[in-house]
Design a protein that fits this description.
Radius of gyration: 19 Å
Helix content: over 70%
Number of strands: 0
Shape: elongated
Order of helices and strands: HHH
């Protein structure tokens, strides 16, 4: 039972950490690629500035640190939800 809980928590934590990283990477890549469309380079530049400002807020001035903080929070929330789901299913099966 304990080994299943730990395995589930580790996998959920890793997936919860990677998901925000991939999402922010896709947003930054999309904003960057929009800049290659003629006439949309201003929109691309504005969106990249907004994304880096958003990440700077969470990273105390560093966008990379901001992405890591969002990943850690996502992993922690995923692990908490997984623990809650395990507790809820174990209580419902024991009745």
């Amino acid at each position: 039972m304990l080994i299943h809980l730990l395995r589930s928590l580790v996998l959920t934590g890793i997936a919860g950490f990677i998901a925000p990283l991939l999402f922010m990477g896709m947003l930054i890549t999309t904003a960057f690629l929009i800049g290659y469309v003629p006439g949309l380079d201003g929109i691309s530049h504005d969106n990249l500035n907004r994304l880096t400002h958003f990440l700077n807020v969470f990273g105390s001035g560093s966008p990379l640190r901001g992405v890591v903080v969002l990943g850690i929070v996502g992993g922690s929330v995923g692990m908490l939800f997984d623990t809650y789901a395990l507790l809820a299913t174990s209580k419902s099966t024991s009745r």
